[in-house]
């Protein structure tokens, strides 16, 4: 009788990120839009916003991140047995983005690749990651590795929501013996039906948004997922009175970074409601009668706990907001760009043995809080991501030109018999781009010559 050893330390082995080369400065956008100074930079906590023209779509950005990842890490497509895509940016109601990515596998002759797209607002990538990790942890696993692709093009109609857009996608390699090991079964999940942000109009890229409801829903989801996570921590790790003190780093889905500040404040309030008597709560004792329900829209509670959680925020969450502040919202990719930022901002030596928790929220609504334990070096991940240098190597676009590009995207959404007019020279080397959409909506792609590898597609 053969005894099969279960794989250990299943999680993220490596990670690559892609974002467009062009951005608009939020301070300049404030002036251009004629809004009060600080509305986007302080009110939303945003600095720069990445965007793309008609040359890039969800397929092209996913092709870019996967191919760049495989080249950077020297991985053979034959080694991949599962590929999951988490996105809410759809260009087809039936054909998945994952199937388009199979063109990259053609040369290797590997067509035996499980997985498909997962969709629910900004949560799809988290569900895709869970699926991939659970596949490796199951008797269905065939010994190969998995890729999880997670990201979106986040665009809004002209108006107050537009500055909270962005664009980005990540590719993660999942398998055993990973430096970022998923902590099974530490996971708190919350699901509810509501209409806070959704995309019922298939003729438009823009969502329908109930902003105030979305903020309340995010906070409520933090409450519920966090409570469940702490319960698991107490049950499975034997932790007494679990709290933020048991988590070293907290990474949040970031629609805009100000919401993340509120998210951590919310967790701190949860600890307070659970009866924590830490000295840090001395200044907020007046809120002892508040409950999770009554406090959801209480601005005084929010303000007080933002102050109370400031020290934890600086140490545990601030390092994860580097990309979000400089790129904007990447929907499904947002929380993983937070993880990428953390790995870039905090050294591998400092991260060893630490617990990194991720809070993922998707409107409509679905949310999970889960964690990784850092059990190996993250140095190579950070070096290959090269995030700071790549963010510095971007092209700033005037707000008026940005508006014209957004108008072009809107006008050409879902058209057929079309050849894009965007300037390919404004893309990073190695970027895939849309060449044309034929009379049957079939799309063909090219690739900007990748100088590092000396080839183009």
Automatic annotation (TrEMBL):
<keyword id="KW-0012">Acyltransferase</keyword>
<protein>
    <submittedName>
        <fullName>3-hydroxy-3-methylglutaryl coenzyme A synthase</fullName>
        <ecNumber>2.3.3.10</ecNumber>
    </submittedName>
</protein>
<keyword id="KW-0808">Transferase</keyword>
């Amino acid at each position: 009788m053969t005894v099969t050893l279960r794989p250990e330390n299943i999680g993220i082995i490596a990670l690559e990120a892609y974002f467009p080369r062009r951005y608009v400065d939020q301070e300049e956008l404030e002036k251009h839009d004629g809004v009060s100074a600080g509305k986007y930079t302080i009110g939303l906590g945003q600095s720069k916003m990445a965007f793309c023209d008609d040359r890039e779509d969800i397929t092209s950005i996913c092709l870019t991140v996967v191919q760049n990842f495989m080249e950077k890490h020297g991985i053979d497509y034959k080694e991949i047995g599962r590929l999951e895509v988490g996105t809410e940016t759809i260009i087809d109601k039936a054909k998945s983005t994952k199937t388009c990515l199979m063109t990259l596998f053609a040369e290797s002759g590997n067509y035996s690749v499980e997985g498909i797209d997962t969709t629910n607002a900004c949560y799809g990538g988290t569900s895709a990651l869970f699926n991939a990790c659970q596949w490796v942890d199951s008797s269905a696993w065939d010994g190969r590795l998995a890729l999880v692709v997670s990201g979106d093009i986040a665009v809004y109609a002209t108006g107050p929501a537009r500055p909270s857009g962005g664009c980005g996608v990540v590719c993660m390699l999942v398998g055993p013996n990973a430096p970022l090991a998923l902590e099974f079964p530490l996971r708190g999940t919350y699901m509810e039906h509501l209409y806070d942000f959704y995309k019922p109009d298939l003729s438009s890229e823009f969502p329908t948004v109930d902003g105030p409801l979305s903020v309340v829903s995010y906070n409520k989801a933090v409450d519920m997922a966090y409570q469940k996570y702490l319960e698991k921590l107490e049950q499975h790790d034997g932790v007494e009175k679990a709290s933020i003190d048991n988590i070293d780093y907290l990474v949040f889905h970031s629609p805009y970074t100000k919401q993340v500040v509120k998210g951590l404040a919310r967790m701190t309030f949860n600890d307070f409601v659970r009866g924590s008597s830490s000295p840090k709560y001395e200044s907020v004792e007046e809120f002892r009668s508040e409950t999770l329900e009554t406090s959801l829209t209480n601005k005084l509670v929010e303000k007080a706990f933002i102050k109370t959680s400031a020290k934890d925020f600086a140490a545990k969450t601030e390092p994860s907001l580097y990309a979000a502040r400089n790129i904007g919202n990447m929907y499904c990719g947002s929380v993983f760009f937070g993880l990428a930022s953390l790995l870039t901002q905090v050294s591998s030596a400092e991260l060893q043995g630490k617990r990194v928790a991720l809070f993922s929220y998707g409107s409509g609504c679905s949310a999970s809080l889960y964690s990784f334990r850092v059990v190996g070096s993250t140095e190579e991940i950070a070096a290959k991501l090269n995030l700071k240098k790549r963010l510095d190597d971007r092209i700033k676009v005037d707000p008026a030109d940005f508006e014209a590009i957004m108008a072009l995207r809107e006008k050409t959404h879902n058209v057929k018999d079309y050849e894009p007019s965007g300037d390919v020279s404004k893309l990073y080397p190695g970027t895939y781009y849309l060449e044309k959409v034929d009379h049957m909506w079939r799309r063909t792609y090219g690739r900007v010559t990748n100088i590092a590898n000396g080839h183009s597609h």
